[in-house]
Design goal:
By secondary structure, the protein is α+β, with helices and mostly antiparallel strands. Helices cover 14% and strands 16% of the residues. It has one domain (45-331): paralog of FGE (formylglycine-generating enzyme) (Alpha-Beta Complex). The chain has helices at 28-33, 96-106, 111-115, 172-182, 189-197, 278-283, and strands at 54-57, 60-64, 80-84, 87-90, 117-121, 134-135, 138-145, 228-229, 233-234, 264-270, 291-294, 314-316, 325-326, 330-331. A hairpin with a 2-residue loop joins strand 6 (134-135) and strand 7 (138-145).
């Protein structure tokens, strides 16, 4: 149900961006059925020792964007400001263990489960599936039957989601449903960037301006991104091929983990283009209704997708699900309990 495939089993996807595929269209019947599923338990994920801390983000003048954009087409610039009220934010992205609690208590079924498939990076699959259901334009992505949050590589090659890793294969609609249950909400783009900068001002990354390097010595990595030649060779010098545990690497000054790398994070922001240049507007013409995503993922590399910088931005359709898409919540006041 993701899209049409050509005779060779390759998806005809006219909406794919450079690094994240999208579903061809939403299915209203699937959306309507999401809240009408019987409860299902995932006890193997529950009770794990996973972080669930919330940190305070101070009020102030947020910096959004940059005056030195790298990807002009994404409208990373110019640098601008916005007044931000104090809020609270999850120290990590939502983990599989925490999402399992939500599912157990509510019986919620994600969109990937309802549609019956999701997008999986081919490097996470056996080599004999290398060309199966490849996405045109981004052939390292596969549409995999049964792939979802608790079985991230699908029914043919089942795998167990690690409790302390970020939950993935989560659509924007899924994240919104979780937020309602947890008493929070998704951040807007200004809040996300304000939090990611950690009070350091106009910097590229949560730790400053120093770029991550492929040849960095072991133990000196700041985030989980690709090392080597994308998409064929990942040296895994940072210790991870796919996702890393949500609480990995050093946090920023506000106590937030992995605001860059690991998984893309949904925001509540509608993706809009202000530019009057026809070329830029044409490139984003099919993104009506898309939501801004921030932070990059374990698949980002400067040679291919230099979007793990704070000012960088991407977008996806709210029904899309992938193996590098997650989220974290913000709160307008500190919750009395943190589910």
């Amino acid at each position: 149900m993701i899209a049409m495939y050509d005779e060779g089993g390759v998806m005809e996807d006219k909406k794919s961006s450079c690094c994240t595929p999208q579903r061809a269209e939403a299915n209203s019947a699937v959306l309507a059925a999401l809240h009408n599923q019987p409860p299902r338990a995932y006890e193997y994920l529950l009770g794990a020792d996973t972080p669930s801390a919330i940190v305070e983000i101070p009020a102030g003048t947020a910096l959004i964007g940059t005056d030195t954009p790298y990807l002009v087409v994404d409208e990373e610039g110019p640098l601008r400001t916005s007044k931000i009220k104090r809020f609270w934010m999850d120290a990590t992205t939502v983990t599989n263990a925490r999402f399992a609690q939500f599912v157990q208590e509510t019986g919620y079924q994600t969109q990937a489960e309802a549609f019956g498939d999701s997008f999986v990076f081919n490097g996470l699959l056996p080599h004999d599936d290398f060309f199966e259901r490849a996405v045109v334009g981004v052939p390292w992505w596969r549409s995999v039957e049964g792939a979802c949050w608790h079985n991230p590589t699908g029914t043919k090659y089942p795998s167990q989601a690690e409790p302390d890793h970020p939950v993935t294969h989560i659509s924007w609609h899924d994240a919104m449903a979780f937020a309602k249950w947890a008493g929070g909400r998704l951040p807007n783009e200004a809040e996300w960037e304000h939090a990611a900068r950690g009070g350091l001002g106009d910097v590229k990354y949560p730790w400053g301006d120093d770029d991550p390097r492929d040849d960095t010595l072991e133990g000196q990595f700041n985030c989980n991104i690709w090392q080597g030649t994308f998409p064929t060779d990942n040296s895994e010098k940072d210790g991870y091929y796919g996702t890393a545990p949500a609480q990995s690497f050093a946090p920023n000054a506000y106590g937030l983990y992995q605001m860059c790398g690991n998984v893309w994070e949904w925001t509540t922001q509608h993706f809009k283009i202000r530019s009057l240049k026809k070329q830029i507007r044409a490139q984003h013409a099919d993104k009506i209704g898309f939501k801004v995503t921030k932070g990059g993922s374990f698949l980002c590399h400067k040679s291919y997708c230099y979007r793990y910088r704070i000012a960088a931005r991407s977008s996806n359709s709210p029904d899309s699900t992938t193996s590098h898409q997650g989220f974290r919540l913000v709160y307008d006041k500190p919750p009395q309990t943190h589910s």
